[in-house]
Amino acid sequence: MFLTATLLPLMLQAGLDPTRGGVPDYSADIQDRPPRELSIIDAPQPTSWLAQCLDQLEDEPTRAHVQAQIRRDTTNGEDRVLANHCLGLASTELGRWEEARAAFTAARQETPAEETRLRARFGAMAGNAALVTGDLPGALALLDAARADALAAQAGGMPGLIALDSARVLVGLEQLDAAEAALAEARMFQPDDAETRLLSATLLRRMGKLADAQEQVEEAARLDPTAPAIGLEAGVIAILDGREEAARSSWQSVIDLSPGTEFATSAQSYLDQLGPTEQ
Fold first, then answer.
1. pTM attached to this predicted model
2. DSSP characters over 165-202
């Protein structure tokens, strides 16, 4: 029992046998991520055409895509910006990420320079689309430009959302110190966002900063007490820090609160590797 409890932290650091459930790494969750909608940002004022195009997105995305292409090719100015906006969203619905990136990028470029808030919105969506395609350097460049626009616009929590996405990209590029700085900025703009706290905890744990990771996972748990991903991460941090009882408690809570989920499966795998508690 003592030997198993001693070895598990080393296995967690090195990476578990994937057939037995790997260590959660939400900081590197950069695949299949749709463009962030950035709901805190005011969308362009819906004209009758744009409203019709947006209404078709869920049920008839192909129709919306074709109509947006025609509108883009036959208009200019604000109408063309709105057409690219809808084209990007329709492309997203259809999984055409390169087209979505191109449309959102064009919308940003054709938005007047003084409308920094709207430029930030389009730039962030283009960056997220680039992220999904796997072009991490391209995504980072787009997000950096969007961040600059958001800061210039003094757009509330938007810079925090963009910083969070930048951190995901930086982790993918193995630039962990820069990712840590981006997450610190995200926390500054959105201190009550549980996802930001969880990603911070995971990254800090990966970097061996267990005390800081513990602080962030505690904040995440305070903000979202029943989230299974948070409970799973809390257990990983605890076992790496030599707190076996706390790790067991966290993982058991995941099993109890989220039975039948992948999180519960991972938690049970960790508990199985620890073995039964000593009587």
1. 0.80
2. HHHHHHHHTT-HHHHHHHHHHHHHH-TT-HHHHHHHHH
Phi and psi of 226, rounded to 5°? Answer: -105, 5
DSSP letter string over 229-272? HHHHHHHHHHHHTT-HHHHHHHHHHHHHHSTTSHHHHHHHHHHH
Which pLDDT tens digit goes with each residue over 111-128? 999 999 999 999 999 999
Region class of 91: left (phi > 0), else alpha (psi between -120 and 50), else beta: alpha
Could you state, in order of their start, the residue ranges of all structural domains in the chain? 194-278
b/e code 62-92 from CB counts within 10 Å (16+ = b)? eebbebbbebbeeeeeeebbbbbbbbbbbbb
What's 194-278's CATH class? mainly alpha
Alpha-carbon 152 to chain mean position = 23
54-67 tens-digit pLDDT: 888 889 999 999 99
